[in-house]
Amino acid sequence: MLDIILRAGSFIAIIVLGYLLKRIGVFKQEDFGVLSKIAIRITLPCAIIVSFSGKVIDPSLLSLPLISIACGAVYVTAGYLFHRNKTREQQAFGMLNLAGYNIGNFTIPFAQSFLGPMAVIAISIFDIGNAMVCLGGAFSLACMVKDGSRFSLTRVIRALMRSVPFVVYLIVLTMCMLHIPTPRLVLSVAEIGSSANAFAAMLMIGVGFKLEAKREQLMTIARIVAIRYTAATVFALIFYFVLPFALEIRQALVILAFAPVGAAVPGFTGEMGGDVGLSSAINSICMVISITLIVSLLLVML
User: Fold this and answer.
1) Tell me, what's the pLDDT at 42?
2) Which residue has the higher pLDDT, 101 or 12?
3) Which of 104, 132, 140, 164 has the fewest CB atoms nearer than 10 Å to its CB?
């Protein structure tokens, strides 16, 4: 238990360090984009390569992307229904800001540090479906509600093909299924990047932490957060007690259920013409809640 507390405390300390470095001017808010690119396009793909290397994938895990898409559909539907008496802009905002999970730079570092490689593999496979929700699916549906535009599958596919982690997922998953070994040089470089993934991701979260919301916006934040974590509790119970996977994988899915909203959501909110400040506030609040809940769950489960 002490080891879990120390490692979790280290994660929180790195987040606080990133936030303090921003406050004293070492980092600026715009540096978040640079750190995000390092974490998502370099260290995360390295962690994925290392986790999948030499592993045999249980075919049953290939159901995880479908489960992920189903969870995303529940959140998008809830966002629409719980804002059905609001304006179309508020409906679209609710749909977009409830959907998806921050897996690459939040959940995987926790799994990597506390649970082990099979947990990372399960979460990574789950993230294939999550990417379809976060990187285009929820955005297209929200836009359709807001201004009557049609759902664009082409837009979703283009967004996915520009996602480095998604492409790496597909490559390493295919290699595992075909029993193709990872080249030694690639694995050697990836191991260096993988060891930096947790630090880069937590530092990025600290630099990106932003909490600005007007008093009248607090009700919207409270509603979305309440829906998010009520659904997360239901999903976690199903993942742990119903799904027929090994204990380590079910533990990983429980942690994943309480992951915060996807990191790309504020950006998509801005592209949709929504309230970016409110979206960033929701994202930051979810970070704090998720860290607290995940650390508590790790203390109970491990």
Assistant:
1) 87
2) 101
3) 164
Query: What pLDDT was estimated at residue 242?
Result: 94
Structure confidence at residue 2 (pLDDT): 64
Residue 36 and residue 163 in contact, taking contact as beta carbons nearer than 8 Å = no
- Predicted model pTM: 0.81
Contacts 24+ apart (CB under 8 A), 269-273: 269/93, 269/96, 269/97, 271/139, 272/92, 272/96, 272/139, 272/142, 272/143, 272/146, 273/89, 273/146
Specify the 3-state DSSP secondary structure of 213.
Answer: coil
Cβ-contact 48, 169 below 8 angstroms: yes
DSSP state at residue 89: H
Nearest Cα residue to 165 out of 288, 262, 62, 44: 44
Measuring CA to CA, which residue among 87, 120, 81 is closest to residue 223?
81
Query: Are the beta carbons of 8 and 295 closer than 8 angstroms?
Result: yes
pLDDT tens-digit map of 265-287: 776 777 777 787 788 788 888 88
